[in-house]
Amino acid sequence: MESIEKKIPFTCPSCKSEHMVTCYEQLGPNKKEEVMSASFLQWDCESCGHKVKLVYPTYYCNIEKEFVVFLRPNASDVSCITEDEKEMFKDFTMRLCKTADTFVEKVRVFEANLNDRAIELLKLITFAKIHVENDTIQDIFFYRRSEHGSLEFTLMYKEDIDGIDIDQAMYQNVLNIVTDELPPLEEDVYCIDLNWAGAQVV
Ligand SMILES: [Zn+2]
Prior knowledge:
Elements: E1 4-11, E2 18-26, H1 32-36, E3 42-44, E4 51-53, E5 58-62, E6 67-71, H2 83-88, E7 93-97, H3 100-111, H4 116-133, E8 137-145, E9 151-157, E10 161-166, H5 168-181, E11 189-190, H6 194-200
Parallel strand pairs: 6-7, 7-11
Antiparallel strand pairs: 1-2, 3-4, 5-6, 8-9, 9-10
Helix pairs in contact: 4-5, 4-6
Bound molecules: zinc ion (ZN).
Protein name: CpXC protein
Domain CpXC: 11-123
Pfam families: CpXC
C-alpha cells in the first residue's frame, strides 16, 4: 500500500505566513523511514524557520506484514475506528495509538517483526525496575532491534534522555508468557500500550 498525500493550507503560528503543508491520508512502507524517524509530521516554516509538529488522524499499513496502526490523537478508546475501517483491514493486526510518539513506536515494533504485547510488558517491567532507583523516569519507548539482536529502548527522564539494551532472551521469556498465559486477541482493533500492560499484572 502506497502513501497518499494531500496538501492543506496552513498558517505559520509564528510568522503568520500562509503555506501549503503535506499531510498523509495513509502511510505505507515507502514512507517507513519518515514514519520511524517521526519526520513525516515535522514541518519547518520556509519563511521563518519555525518548527511545528503536525499531528492529525492517519494510519500506517503494511500489507505484506498484515498490520495497520491508526493514529487518532486524543481518542478516548477504540470505538473511534469505524466498522468500515475494520472491514477494510480484515484479518490484519489492528492497533490504535492516541499519540504521535506511540504511533511511531508501534510501527517500529511491527516493522521489526516483534510482538507488541510482549514489548509493552517488557517496557513495564523495565520502567518499574528503573523507577526504584530513579523516580525521575517518565516514559519508555521501543527504539529498534540492534544488529546483535538485542532490543534498544529510549528512556525519557524529567531532564534527560538515555537508552537501555535488553537482550533477546529476556524478550523471549516475556513472549512465552504472552503466548502461554494471556488469552489470544480477537479479530478486532486494540490499544496495546503501557496502560494495557499495567492492567495485565494486577
Ligand atoms: Zn513562519
